[in-house]
Amino acid sequence: MKFLYRALEFAKKLLRWLTPRGARSVIKQLAPFQRFYSNLEIVHTREWQEYRKLRSGLGNSQQAQGGVNIVGYLKATKGISEAARNNALALSSAKIPFTVNDYEAGIPKSMQVDDLPVAPDGSGFKFNTNLIHINPPQLPYLWDAFAHEDLATRYTIGVWYWELPQIPNEWGPAFDLVDEVWAASDFVFRSISAKSPVPVIKIPPCVRPVYNHLLTRTDFLLPSDCFLFICAYDMLSAQDRKNPLGAVEAFKRAFPKNDPSVGLVIKINNAQENPRGFETLMNSTTGYSNCYLLKDVYDKQKVNSLIKLGDAFISLHRSEGFGLIPAEAMSFGKPVILTKWSGNLDYMTQENSCGVDYKLIPATSTSGPYGAGQVWADPDIDHAAFFMKKLFSDREYYTQISNHAKRTIETNFSPQIVGRMIREHMTHLGLLDQYSSG
């Protein structure tokens, strides 16, 4: 049976090369293809599980040199990709040796625009610990991408992100492929821990965004002389969850139509993946000359530059695993207006941010993987509009929030702080004792 799936896997790769990404997403919804992918995941997972049983992970990992092999979508413009790149910064800061191993399956070339993290030890699986920044649905496909010995004989840590109170039951088999899971926030920790048979450890991503100081608002075709709110999201992260329409509505309630002294910028990744959603967003800003939609693909440095050129950041999301972009905005000293629920509470206080009230409502079953039986936040649009007006008009309040925001990120989420957490944890597990270089 597994040989049949090997042949089908080759056919799948050929199909991916021959068909546009939009067409592939439609094809995957067809029942035969859903069964194919489901069965292929089962085959890969079982083989991986069996291999791990034969070659005890921790016992064999101790034969390798102490350090970390990072695996992930390391060149992609995705939140989980940036978290992986940031972990490389944390490891470097803690003087933990590491390699980087890019996984590109399913990521179009147009989204692979970031540079690989600098790793003095190069690529490959030279060390005793695998740190895999790939969520459970895609995890089984690594089995065909890397050597089985490298995947199954190292101490393996899954860095998983989820944005609702309950992880899907379908994640269950993936626990057999890892020795522990790292969660970015208390929210994700509680969600995964409720169903996890392996240890779950809270390790946040570090925050140290790079930017291009030569870029100006003119480079983004934005006005240079007005107060700009920035909103940024990826269409593949589900538009209903990211809720940019909420930011648009709050902006409309806060300021007169076409007020030249203030503007709202919405940066969208992968707009082509949801044409209807993008059209809805465009229609919501029709007639507002001070609303700007940017849909070109930027590398992370350019996105960070845009955020730094703004005056404040707004995300009226319905749920976040951590909320990396708002944390990055805070690191620049930008006040953030955020729904006061889920993973972003790990860095939000009344002094460093503008927390928007909400009520919990059922999550919509049509929003990507977020199905029935779950809840998420419905932010108070009027409360958000109040904060927009206050940041715009009250300079003293703006400065206070700005200073506290920057201090919070520097104090709690720097590469040095997160690197120290990783070193202490790995030392406790005995993965660095003999080989520690710090």
Number of domains: 2
| H/E series | HHHHEHEEHEEHEEHHEHEHEHEEEEHHH
How many beta-strand segments? Answer: 14
Estimate the helix proportion, in percent.
Answer: 25-40%
Distance between the termini: 48 Å
Oligomeric assembly? single chain
Shape: globular
- Proportion of residues in extended strands: 15-25%
According to CATH, what is the class of the largest domain? Alpha Beta
Low-confidence stretches: 19-37
Walk across the major sheet and give the strand order. Answer: 2-1-3-4-5-6
Q: Would you tell me the overall average pLDDT? A: 89
The main sheet comes to: 6 strands, parallel
Structural category: alpha/beta
Radius of gyration: 22 Å
Using the 3D structure, state the CATH architecture of the largest domain.
Answer: 3-Layer(aba) Sandwich
Instruction: Give me the CATH fold name of the largest domain.
Output: Rossmann fold
Query: What is the count of DSSP helices, taking H or I runs of 4+ residues?
Result: 15
Topology:
Elements: H1 2-18, H2 21-27, H3 31-54, H4 57-61, E1 65-72, H5 79-93, E2 98-102, E3 127-133, H6 148-152, E4 155-159, E5 180-183, H7 186-193, E6 200-202, E7 227-234, H8 239-242, H9 244-254, E8 262-269, H10 275-284, E9 291-294, H11 300-309, E10 312-315, H12 324-331, E11 336-339, E12 354-356, E13 358-362, E14 375-379, H13 381-393, H14 395-412, H15 415-429
Parallel strand pairs: 1-2, 1-3, 3-4, 4-5, 5-6, 7-8, 7-10, 8-9, 10-11, 11-12
Antiparallel strand pairs: 13-14
Helix pairs in contact: 1-3, 5-15, 9-13, 12-14
